[in-house]
């Protein structure tokens, strides 16, 4: 009788291990392709859509997040149109250069790629704005928004009803496409310019004035590249600190709310005047030393977060 090897069904541990590897590979590919515009992609597309998905059927939270995201998306698309138009103009100006009689074809290929990316960035940003215009206006995004309009708005943004599918991820790609093409346009333009200026070294031509121009260009370009890399690292570190600060503030707020709910009612009236007096004396002390000017205005947590996010740009 022949020996038969019975195959064991995969366990949950094996499935989780394979899934983790798939997720890691997808995230690595996503990081590589979104590297030129990682922060824009994260703040204006990935994180807002994730928060809108997480809002679920909470009307108040969903309307608030859509209102903020719509305003931010408009600003992003306007910036994309300006930057892409400027890049297209710069590319058209460089295509007519004839300084070198036999330039490297890679430079022209990169410049033409930059031109087409710029054109698509402008066109797709206009198309994306038309999708945003189909959403309820800022004045309509309030508690009186009909349920049917709320569900339609959610479907337009996320493109799914129950769970995310292919249409949802395609829509996410569409939302970020203008920023992607604009970023690629600038990357290919600078790459083509670098290849074009470096033609004397690539072709190993004799020393000439073009070689000196190449050295000057590469020196300034390397300094700018290192500065951009360091500033990106500082921005990333500041972003992580900001996220940890928000998480800590949220935890402290929850603890204070829980403590106030569990505290006896008799002690609260006596504590309020003391706290107000301490705060008032501290404010008077700062004003007397010239360290505080004008009346203090309360600011909500969401407003401070928006101001901080704008300062990071």
Automatic annotation (TrEMBL):
One Pfam family, please name it.
DUF6535
Looking at the record, which segments are called Disordered? Answer: 256-313
Transmembrane segments annotated in the record for this chain: 20-37, 104-123, 169-195, 215-237
Locate the compositionally biased regions of type Basic and acidic residues. 296-313
Q: Where is the DUF6535 domain?
A: 91-198
Can you say what this protein is called? Answer: DUF6535 domain-containing protein
Keyword annotations: Membrane, Transmembrane, Transmembrane helix
Residue spans of biased composition, Low complexity class: 258-271
| Keyword Membrane attributed | yes
